[in-house]
């Protein structure tokens, strides 16, 4: 009896693994030009503020749980979305949502174009398979593109408007 139960459990486990879908990674790169040098633009878009993005994404809250934006810092968006800083340079940061089934990551960066101009780049990457069927994936993709491009455009407008 014990052998039958173990065999049934292993069969069920094996069947679940065989049916798992492979990851379908989507990378989205959103940009806007800024008529300021990159270090100035970074400060103007709030790059040094670990919760600075909140005002551009129109989230209800952003709470810094640990750190100040350096690698290992934690923030919570809208009281439920935990994000951890996994990389940082003087003009960029990358965060991950460790609890997200889609292994979601985002990078905000300002790249120099020349001595007086820069480009704000927001890159998102996630596993679409974890989102659901093709319709759910398209909705998630379109929603993120609309929301994050609007935030990038607001940041660029604020930076370009500043003296």
What features would you describe in this structure?
- 35% of the residues lie in helices and 31% in strands.
- The relative contact order is 0.20.
- It has a single domain, classed as Alpha-D-Glucose-1,6-Bisphosphate, Chain A, domain 4, CATH 3.30.530.20.
- With 163 residues, the chain is of the alpha+beta class.
- The protein is built from four helices and seven strands; from the N terminus they run αβααββββββα.
- The termini are far apart.
- A seven-stranded antiparallel beta sheet has the order 1-7-6-5-4-3-2.
- Strand 4 (81-89) and strand 5 (92-96) form a beta hairpin.
Task: Give me the count of strands.
Answer: 7
Superfamily (CATH H level) name = START domain
What percent strand?
25-35%
- Please give the share of residues in helix: 25-40%
Rg over CA atoms: 20 Å
What is the count of helical runs? 4
By oligomeric state, this entry counts as: single chain
């Amino acid at each position: 009896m014990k052998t039958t139960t173990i065999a049934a459990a292993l069969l069920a486990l094996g069947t679940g693994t065989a049916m798992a879908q492979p990851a379908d990674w989507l990378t989205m790169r959103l940009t806007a030009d800024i008529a300021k040098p990159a270090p100035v633009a970074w400060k103007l878009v709030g790059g040094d503020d670990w919760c600075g993005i909140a005002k551009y994404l129109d989230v209800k809250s952003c709470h810094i749980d640990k750190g100040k934006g350096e690698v290992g810092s934690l923030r919570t968006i809208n009281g439920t979305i935990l994000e951890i800083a996994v990389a940082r340079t003087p003009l960029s940061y990358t965060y991950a949502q460790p609890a997200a089934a889609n292994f979601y990551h985002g990078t905000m960066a300002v790249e120099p174009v020349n001595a007086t101009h820069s480009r704000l780049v927001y890159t998102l990457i996630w596993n679409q398979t974890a989102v659901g069927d093709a319709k759910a994936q398209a909705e998630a993709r379109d929603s993120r593109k609309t929301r994050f491009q609007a935030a990038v455009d607001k940041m660029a407008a604020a930076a370009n408007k500043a003296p």
